[in-house]
Amino acid sequence: MDLEKLRCDLSENNQLHLLQHWEQLSEADKAILLDELSRINYSEVNGFFKAATESLDCKADKLDNQMLPVPSDVFGSIRTTDKYLLCQYENEGLKQISDGCVAVLLLAGGQGTRLGVPYPKGMYNVGLPSGKTLYQLQAEHIVRLQQMAEEKHGKKGDISWYIMTSATTSKVTSEFFAKHNYFGLDERNVSFFEQQTLPCFTFDGKIVLESPCSIAKAPDGNGGLYRALRHGKILENMESRGITYIHVYCVDNVLVKMADPVYIGFCISKKAQCGNKVVRKAFPSEPVGVLCRVNGVYQVVEYSEILPETAEKLNAAGELEFNAANIANHFFTLDFLNTVVREKEQQLKHHVAKKKIPYCNEKSQTIKPSSPNGIKMEKFVFDVFQFARYIFQ
After folding, report:
1. pTM value?
2. Residue 242: left if φ>0, alpha if ψ -120 to 50, beta else—which one?
3. What is the C-alpha to C-alpha distance for residues 19 and 285, in angstroms, rounded to an integer?
């Protein structure tokens, strides 16, 4: 896109301020800014901002009166299910693995800032005597699962591992895997793809200019998975490999049972389009989201969206009525993901996070604010539950 066309586009979408330092830029910086600004669909992102902020206003009301617990006929428990039935689930899950029909999809776009390290979370040494990182632990789990499936069914099947990174973690993550020879996995079965980013906005709808030649951007949340699947043509790759079932999880879950055969077998037995593995909420004020029904559809409701008295409600058994704590551990069929990506993704609304966003002032200085001055928009991976006819937990 040439400068005049860009200037016209920015003016039409009320974002012309992004060129306010243009005349002071070097030719190299002009090229950087022109390239970055030309990649944005301003009508689209303005629409995202409008819908997200309108949704934020609507959420001023708590969801308590609209919530119902998940019906007992759509969940199973590892604690109460007959051992023979659990073995049947496990056998089915291992069979699907031996047939090469199972993939695991890792959400690994975040840096390890909260862990006190300047590199991707998956490279974090969790403090075991072995010194193994999260990535190594998870890779070795896949290797062992493949062995178990072959031992059980006499057929060697590969588990395809898809790893969603971000612009800041992509290169270092792929290099880390190559350096460690993919931790015993076949390189051909490990695929990396990038999460997309969105511009950050001021509260009045202006895209934030972070420096004279760059805008402030942020990853579009773990629900950006569906947009990234489309951009990276990942579902087409899965289809070509004969994959039918996908387990999705987050990188910082050190206890995750990747491609858990019992979980997979259970979901298959229920003909579930998607599943959500949960744990029992420990106490009413525990800061976790809970799976429930809101206005007849399945939804994860954040702890901040309900009143204390709702969180404290007990059922007839004396347990918390809303006790299905979400841990970002999901099962999807490929058919369901295809439907979401091709037909439903645009219906997912962005959630708003008020943040302190560095910005460029009139003197071309980047200022780090002491209080929130804008918003980042993101989607959540579980927002697609609303589209499922059958969901099991």
Report:
1. 0.89
2. left
3. 47
